[in-house]
Design a protein that fits this description.
Strands 2-4-5-7-6 form a 5-stranded mixed β-sheet, with helices on one face. Strands 1-3 form a two-stranded antiparallel ribbon. The chain is of the alpha+beta class. α5 runs parallel beside α6.
Length: 483
């Protein structure tokens, strides 16, 4: 038998804790996936920053290259003008300052640009110190070398831009695919686990529901296997414990019913014995009296008196024989197995058995049979036991009510009839039952327990008018085979 009380459920085994754990697992997965995607996006961000830096570099390089080209044009023009040879270096000052400033801006991207600026600066300083043709040629060559170097660097920057663009696009596509893959994997994994959990939960709930239905129907066999350690597992154990307790209670009720049935049978035997003694002793007393009268005065035994005494003896003999026959019919055991039963005959048989009890002789029992009543497939012994319990319950109440000072003979109307789903036996009598009494409750419970296996129903209530009603409903065919 299961323990009387299960140990408290650990918090970490509860459904709420498992739900919280699943939510925490999902959050951890989202956090890890988010950190991974963020690290991949950092690479993309670095590529974007590199492209931005490269764009600024290219812009500064283009401005410098334009300034150098303009300076080359002015140097060529001034170097070929005889009159401007002396004043030419001053006219180039603005270009040289602009180039120096632009080269200084380029140094933030590559310090090697300072070498080009220093070369141009030395050539320009030499030209300013001695504006001769050789210095003009040296400045022009320095500017051309700088222009060629800038062009080469611009080509390299274009290659770098292409490389960065390709890298950015590939990384962007990779991050997109990885994000979708992580989302799909998380959704599939969490969805699969959730579906598995709820499928198992629904299956166990269905098993518990089916087992509970069997328990309610009285089919309490093997205990429900418990494979869970959560609230549902505790509920399953509670149902198993309830089923075991109900089985134990049923066994106790069965034993108590058997003890009470034996007690009732002994009471019935006593009542039968008293009734039979009354029905047999009276004729015997009359016969004995006639015989003693004839023996006491033989001379007075005329033929007429002998004939009268013989008639009286025969009448009393028939009365005793009839009482013995009724006793034999009442004591005939009913079959315990299910068989076809004539309900009208069974009720009449039970009423004859009740009528023998001297306690109930002051009650008028009126039975109205139904000639159209179909045969009932049930247990005659069980039905007779139920009818005896119900009739005895009502008769006891009527006897007590009569003793309380009613003054009139109580009457009980018994009738059999056909219903939509079977047959019924109805008892109508004056209000006599107090359902708060323990004895009445015990009898009702015992009657219900006897009728339940036969798929019968008992109803207690008020009928039309101030009368109480007990109704026993039975299916015409109990749906079962032979016991």
């Amino acid at each position: 038998m299961p323990p009387a009380e299960d140990a408290p459920l650990p918090v970490w085994k509860s459904l709420r804790a498992r739900g919280a754990l699943a939510t925490l697992g999902l959050l951890v997965y989202l956090l890890v996936a988010g950190l991974y995607v963020a690290s991949e996006r950092n690479v993309i961000r670095e590529s974007v920053q590199g492209l931005e830096e490269l764009g600024r570099h290219e812009k500064a390089l283009a401005l410098t290259e334009s300034a150098v080209s303009g300076a080359i044009l002015d140097v060529n023009e001034l170097a070929g003008s005889p009159g401007a040879a002396a004043s030419g270096p001053n006219e180039l000052r603005l270009y040289m300052e602009t180039c120096a400033k632009l080269f200084t801006d380029l140094e933030t991207f590559d310090p090697a640009y300072a070498l080009l600026q220093r070369t141009i600066g030395r050539s320009y300083a030499s030209l300013v110190a001695a504006p001769v043709r050789a210095h003009w040629i040296d400045l022009r060559e320095a500017l051309k070398r700088a222009a060629d170097e800038l062009e080469i660097r611009r080509a390299r920057l274009a290659e770098q831009r292409e490389t960065l663009n390709t890298r950015y696009q590939r990384k962007y596509d990779a991050v997109t695919v990885e994000t979708l893959a992580l989302a799909g994997f998380g959704l599939a994994a969490f969805g699969t686990l959730t579906a598995w959990f709820f499928t198992r939960l629904a299956r166990d709930i269905r098993r518990l529901e089916q087992h509970a239905r069997l328990v309610v129907r009285g089919q309490r066999g093997a205990a429900l296997p418990v494979q869970r350690e959560d609230e549902l597992g505790h509920l399953m154990r509670a149902v198993n414990r309830m089923s075991a307790e109900l089985d134990e209670r049923d066994r106790e009720l069965l034993l108590e019913g058997e003890r009470r049935s034996h007690h009732d049978k002994m009471l019935a035997v006593g009542a039968l014995a008293a009734g039979v003694a009354h029905e047999v002793n009276n004729p015997l007393a009359v016969i004995s009296g006639v015989a003693q009268a004839i023996r006491a005065d033989p001379a007075a035994a005329t033929p007429d008196r002998l004939t009268e005494g013989a008639d009286l003896i025969l009448a009393q003999t028939q009365r005793a024989a009839q009482a013995a026959r009724q006793l034999a019919e009442a004591a005939t055991p009913q079959p315990a197995e299910r068989d076809w039963v004539d309900l009208n005959a069974l009720v009449q048989h039970t009423l004859r058995l009740i009528a023998i009890d001297r306690r109930y002789r002051g009650i008028e029992l009126h039975f109205t049979p139904d000639a159209t009543l179909p045969a009932l497939r049930s247990s005659a012994g069980a039905l007779q036991h139920v009818l005896m319990l119900l009739l005895g319950l009502a008769a006891d109440g009527l006897v007590a009510r009569g003793n309380a000072g009613s003054g009139t003979a109580p009457t009980m109307q018994i009738s059999a009839g056909i219903e939509a789903d079977g047959v019924s036996v109805q008892m109508l009598f004056p209000p006599a039952l107090d359902f708060d009494r323990g004895e009445v409750q015990r009898t009702v419970m015992l009657a219900r327990a006897t009728v339940e296996p036969l798929r019968g129903r008992l109803a207690f209530g008020q009928a039309e008018g101030p009368r109480q009603r007990i109704k026993l409903s039975l299916p015409a065919d109990d749906g079962g085979g032979e016991s």
